[in-house]
Amino acid sequence: MRVGIDIQFAAAGNRSGLYTSVRYLVRELRPLVNDRVLLLANGDVCHPPLGRSEYNELVSAFDGGSLRLFSPWRRLYRIAPRLSPVHRLDALVHNLHGYLPPSRSGANVYVVPDVIPLGFDYGLPAFVDGYRVYYEAAVRNAEAIIVWSEHTRGDLLARVGGDPARVHVCPLAVGPEFHRPDPDAMRAGLSAVGLADTRYVLCVSTIEKRKNHAVLLRAFERVIRRDPSLPHKLVFVGGKWVGHEAVFELAQSLGLGERFVSLGFSDHLPHIYAGADAFVFPSVYEGFGLPPLEAMACGTPVLAADATALPEVVGDAGLLFKPHDHEELAESLYRVLTDADLRRDLSQKGLARASKYSWRRTAELYLGAFQNAREKFRKRAAG
């Protein structure tokens, strides 16, 4: 089966969860389709345009895929589609921020990670517009739409519409680097970020409004006020976006001082996960929720908001809390930090839960959606 994937987002420098998911997907998909996986992007629209080193980085990152960077390809495709490599595909996979028009000679598959811009108000009206165009194009043009959770499936159908039979749920998984490292490796990784001799509570996410860091800050302050002898720090890992200023202001106003650490991005994420006594994910809206799964794969006890897709991911392997109830979170967090037996139980449950997810299984589900889309296209083309 000949599959093409629009990776314009990656060529433009996006290194989000979408980038991670497509990387692992391509590696597992290649042997399943028994053909090339063609990766498509227009290097000329990137700012700055892709050079040789950036091109080589993409080739290396998407192991198993054949990268094609086109300059005039878009115009060629519109004028003479049979001369375009897109014409020879059985399935063309569209991703957010892509430039590919719908295929006229094969099935169109759209990946919709979430509909967060329609469900969460950032106070940025223009932010919504580009996403809405993509969602509506997916509903209008797709033989198949791939989502990462049942929650997103329901949300897309409710907010945008579409044919339920064309929406396929394909959950994500974690990479092999997320596991319980040996003690020496973990200490070396933690030493690199100044956490080798620190007990801490961890949150991994972009620091922004939707991630709801305020409830965690208030809960953590309540825990250490209840028991000042607890040695723990609260560690945030991730970049900054809309609303991050309020998070840091709150941490300061709560008097957390040296108890609060923000590391930004880190290359030692598996070690940071594994070294934490607890991982907390208070986000109010997720299309899947990969960080809790990564934490579970590293054997770290997980507490997550009982909201949107997170209960699907965490199941009964973690503790759920109402997303805006810092008192409930504080009580659960205190129990985890002071009860070693509970931590061991949650760690074991989390490891078992994470083992049920694999990129091979995700790739198989994607392939099933591709095949379903191809059959729909052929029936429609046959009249």
TrEMBL record:
- GO-annotated molecular function: glycosyltransferase activity
- Entry superkingdom: Bacteria
Enumerate the Gene Ontology biological process terms. Answer: lipopolysaccharide biosynthetic process
Question: Which keywords are on file for this protein?
Answer: Transferase
Give every Glycosyl transferase family domain span: 197-350
This chain belongs to the protein called GT4 family glycosyltransferase
